[in-house]
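Journal club prep — side note

Before the paper discussion, L.F. wants everyone to see what a predicted structure for a comparable chain looks like in token form. Sequence:
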Amino acid sequence: MNVKINDQRIASLLFAVSLGLVSPGQGAKADSVADFYRGKTVTIFVGFSVGGGYDLHARILARHIAKHLPGAPSIIVKNLPGGSGLSLINNMYNTAPRDGTQFATVDRAIPLEPLFESSQARFDPLKMNWIGSSDNDGSTCVAWHDAAVKTFDDLKTNQLVVGATGSVGIAYTFPRLANEVLGTKFKIINGYPGSTDVMLSIERGETQGFCSSGFATMELNRPDWVREKKINYLVQVAMAKEKDHPEVPLALDYAKTPADRQALELVISPTLMARPFAAPPEVPAERVAALREAFNATLTDPEYLADAAKSRLQVQLVKGEDIDALLRRLYATPKPVVDRVTNAFK
């Protein structure tokens, strides 16, 4: 029996199969994903208010990822601030549709909350579908120019009032742990919806500093602060120093014992996935793969990179598989180390 193929897509697929470039099953999955997304809307949720680094990363991603997703769905961004994204990730895990039409970005420290036995954390990060991170930028602690604290060593004798966006974000967890392990005197004012709100609180005199903004993000959001030296960089909250700022000390270098360093690394390691995006659990595997492939392709797309550069956004691709591996390693941390960090947050 002769069968005439009129659909060019099917013809191309059969040709690829004949060459062994793709299996029939793979082609069927690709078509299935395209058919699912065609005509749909994919929502990217942001666990912070508008205007901060997480929000900007999500919005630039949203402008470019559709062309890399099979079926080219519409993409929209919605902000749901609360607890640095804790309420958002709880929602994604428990009530969001598990079909690949929603994913979210939350504070890099959020995935560790269940490890610290937080009663507010109602999700399992090892079951979430991590799409990737658009940066692995470390954070810094900064102090306003008229604060008594000019250097990290000053924190041993002088108090610094810092703002935080929830009890689970690094703006809260690092100062708390530093007080316990390094003997600093941070005072934390909690509950701001996002980093933009914390910045405004510094300008109003409500707070004196912040511990959750990388060099690139600060230069983007408050270039006048950097240009006019309105802030002092106290310390880098990262696994390694930013190459363009060797003069700012690394928090890990203040650890006096291996146990101190282990505790600090547990809180600081999430900076390796500085802008994480995750979909709910149980999304069909072929759609997770499509989201990851689209994310990876977007972050190397010249048009996306030009858009990011225009906004002075730092971009470094961290693949979803690498986030999975990092979380598995962190969740294998010895219990005495986890207990020490957990007690510091109480």
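L.F.'s comment for the group: The chain has two domains: 18-136+274-344, 139-270. Keep this in mind when we get to the figures.
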